[in-house]
Design goal:
Strand order of the largest sheet: 9-12-13-8-7-14-15
Mean pLDDT: 96
Low-confidence stretches: none
Helix content: 25-40%
Organism: Auricularia subglabra (strain TFB-10046 / SS5) (White-rot fungus)
Keywords: Oxidoreductase
GO cellular component, one term: cytoplasm
Distance between the termini: 58 Å
Largest sheet: 7 strands, mixed
Protein name: Aldehyde dehydrogenase
Strand content: 15-25%
Number of domains: 2
Radius of gyration: 26 Å
Family: Belongs to the aldehyde dehydrogenase family.
CATH architecture of the largest domain: 3-Layer(aba) Sandwich
CATH class of the largest domain: Alpha Beta
Number of strands: 19
Number of helices: 13
Length: about 425
């Protein structure tokens, strides 16, 4: 892949942080909860919620961010007390083999397994009965997993992807275009755009498109100040895992009717493509057909501002993330109330993943379920409710036993009438 050392280390940091946070919080997370009964006469029933492990779980992870997307959910499964099998991606065999060798040194091999292989191995694993299946990857396979899981009514978490849009609100100076371009370009170039929450396309008022493109051009020069720009070896941009992934990106670039405004170069020998901004992209363009998952960023000029941008986003499947660059509280409120997505990030890209206290997950076609922080623990935990009804509560029970006469009916009506309906 040719990723930089900084990017590689950045994959490990959140796993370490998640592990430490889980270890420090384990006593709190696993403690039985004692909710207060809403009815006073039930207070002595000792209502309790016990967090219990779901059982044996299957975690299927992708190649693009193998370490965090495998081990952050795995930390949650460990903390919950589950046993687990990790189905690792076949596209990075050396790393997967390393994990298969290392894991048994530190964890019970009878409780925690690494499954390497391709489609056959995944298919076999899915035929087994699991307490939970956690999948990160593409929507096509996600649908297959959901269908297979239904056979055993297995709960699943699907972390998928989609076309995560960006809206740049350049009206009335609401956005610093240089800062916006810098943050969008940074989020797009990570792992050469092969990130499930990468900015996919940018919506901007038509009259401000040229100014935004100029900002992207300047940012490109600032980020990669080398004779060959981002294609220089010093740039350390990531490559593609297979020739097929690389060829797909090249074909996308060749099919667009838009204008290549930044970048556009590629290297067949190294399977590299530089961060590329394509302007004047229409909604029917090849770049708008599916998630790009490559270093190409489409800029779609719109007429109609916030309302038009929201209409475009709403007309498409719910994305994993929406990025809004604006200082207008009114614009922020419009996007929060009128769009749906896994997450919303105002004035940056990607950084919502850096805060484990907020959920990370999809909505609609970008997946379902969420994790990070305690949510990772909750995902693999069954919260088992319990009560203990003592003999002393028998006077309250008489009305439920047959024969039920007029007194039982009056008691039921009295309970019904005791509820206070809140005013509007």
């Amino acid at each position: 892949m040719g990723r930089s050392a900084v990017d590689a280390i950045s994959d490990i940091i959140p796993v370490i942080a998640s592990s430490i946070a889980a270890a420090n919080s384990l006593e709190e997370w696993t403690a039985p909860a004692k909710p207060k009964a809403s009815q006073q006469w039930q207070a002595g029933w000792d209502p309790t919620v016990y967090p219990v492990p779901k059982g044996a779980v299957l975690i299927i992870s992708p190649w693009n961010y193998l370490i965090p997307l495998t081990f952050i959910p795995f930390v949650g499964a460990l903390a919950a007390g589950c046993t687990a099998a990790l189905k690792l991606p076949e596209l990075v065999p050396a790393t997967c083999q390393l994990f298969a060798e290392i894991l048994p040194r530190y964890l019970d091999p009878n409780a925690y397994k690494v499954i390497n292989g391709a489609v056959d191995e995944t298919t076999h694993a899915l035929e087994l009965r699991w307490a939970h299946i956690f999948y990160t990857g593409g929507g096509r396979v996600g649908r297959i997993i959901a269908t297979v899981a239904a056979k055993h009514v297995t709960p699943t978490t699907l972390e998928l992807g989609g076309k995560s849009p960006v809206f740049v609100d350049a009206e009335n100076g609401n956005t610093d275009l240089t800062i916006a371009a810098r943050r969008i370009m940074w989020g797009k170039h990570l792992n050469s755009g092969q990130t499930c929450v990468a900015p996919d396309y940018v919506l901007v008022e038509r009259e401000h498109q040229d100014a935004l493109v100029s900002a992207f051009q300047q940012v490109y020069s600032d980020f990669w100040p080398y004779p060959d720009g981002a294609m220089s070896p010093q740039a350390e941009i990531s490559g593609f895992p297979t020739p097929a992934h690389y060829e797909r990106a090249r074909v996308l670039l060749s099919r667009t009717k838009g204008r290549v405004a930044v970048g556009g170069k590629y290297d067949d020998a190294r399977r590299r493509m530089e961060p590329t901004v394509v302007a004047d992209v229409t909604l029917g363009d090849a770049l708008m057909e599916e998630e790009l998952f490559c270093p190409i960023l489409a800029v779609v000029p719109v007429d109609g501002g916030v309302d038009k941008a929201i209409d475009i986003i709403r007309s498409r499947p719910n994305p994993l993330a929406i990025y809004i660059f604006t200082d207008s509280e009114e614009t922020k409120d419009h996007f929060l109330r009128r769009t749906q997505s896994g997450t919303v990030n105002f004035n940056d890209t990607f950084s919502q993943l850096m805060i484990p206290e907020i959920p990370f997950g999809g909505h609609g076609e970008s997946g379902y379920g969420a994790y990070q922080g305690k949510l990772s623990f909750d995902t693999f935990t069954h919260f088992r409710g319990s009560i203990n009804v003592p003999p002393a509560a028998e006077p309250y029970m008489r009305g439920r036993y047959p024969p039920q006469g007029e007194n039982a009916l009056q008691s039921a009506v009295a309970v019904e009438e005791s509820f206070v309906i809140p005013d509007e």
